[in-house]
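Milestone 3.1: sequence recovery, worked example.
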């Protein structure tokens, strides 16, 4: 079985699984950084049986000094997942509007919480539609789940740990924001522009396109070009820990399940004015 089989499911395969006696639990996590909330998209049409789960309020904690999308309170997360019908040990499939970012953060959050059987619908809702598969506007009432949230099943970095990793000769901290944000030329969201000193820029568009991931070897080659070796510790951050969760997902696909997420990311880093800020391109040589 390819390693990707427990991470990604294609639309056609998911349709088959949903026709079985005990199908996977479907979570619709459509989300936008700006614009109408994802719940409106869900109401207009979703995969049959899918339950909407809000990224901002259910899968993350409230924004503040810890970042714009900090870790959720474990008890609150458990309550939200149980309300959505997530059962202990039962497969879950998450999907979003197609870019794969919210779905990857949902995947990461469930795995961090100790729920391993969770996959991402490759290409999200658009892939399902493109396959000509049915869409529903019926809002299901799921049987309450019994999942137990046990935080810590995936590695996380705080600001100090991210700084150490970025400065380490044998480690690499990936900044997956667009290059102008990394270089400090522009910052549309956070109050300070720049990057964590020592971090390496690898914009998300270089390893994922429209929510679809390339073949494993292509992923490995791109990460290797950014300095990610087989045994070299690696972590990722972005603006608030959503796009970086997608980077961690890609690293899992590439065979690096030890990749750590700096959950607070840049929004947490700049909350402390004493933390250093670097600008300019990734150093070479």
């Amino acid at each position: 079985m390819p390693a990707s089989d427990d991470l990604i499911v294609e639309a056609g395969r998911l349709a088959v699984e949903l026709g079985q006696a005990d199908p996977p639990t479907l979570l619709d996590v459509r989300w936008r950084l700006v614009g109408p909330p994802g719940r409106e998209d869900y109401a207009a049409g979703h995969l049959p049986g899918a339950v909407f789960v809000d990224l901002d309020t259910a899968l993350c904690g409230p924004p503040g000094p810890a970042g714009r999308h900090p870790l959720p309170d474990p008890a609150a997360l458990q309550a939200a997942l149980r309300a959505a019908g997530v059962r202990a040990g039962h497969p879950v499939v998450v999907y979003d509007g197609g870019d794969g970012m919210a779905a990857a953060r949902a995947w990461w959050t469930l795995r961090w919480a100790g729920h391993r059987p969770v996959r991402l619908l490759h290409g999200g809702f658009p892939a399902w539609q493109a396959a000509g598969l049915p869409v529903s506007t019926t809002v299901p009432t799921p049987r309450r789940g019994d999942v137990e949230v046990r935080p810590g099943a995936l590695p996380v970095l705080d600001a100090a740990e991210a700084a150490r990793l970025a400065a380490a000769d044998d480690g690499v901290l990936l900044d997956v924001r667009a290059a102008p944000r990394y270089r400090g030329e522009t910052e549309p969201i956070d109050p300070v522009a720049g990057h964590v000193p020592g971090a390496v820029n690898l914009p998300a568009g270089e390893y994922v396109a429209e929510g679809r991931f390339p073949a494993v070897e292509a992923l490995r080659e791109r990460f290797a070009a950014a300095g990610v070796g087989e045994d070299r510790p690696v972590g990722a951050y972005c603006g608030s820990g959503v796009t970086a969760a997608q980077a961690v997902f890609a690293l899992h696909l590439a065979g690096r399940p030890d990749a750590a997420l700096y959950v607070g990311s840049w929004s947490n880093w700049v909350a402390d004015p004493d933390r250093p800020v670097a600008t300019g391109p990734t150093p070479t040589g």
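The chain has a mean pLDDT of 95. The chain is about 30% helix and 10% strand.
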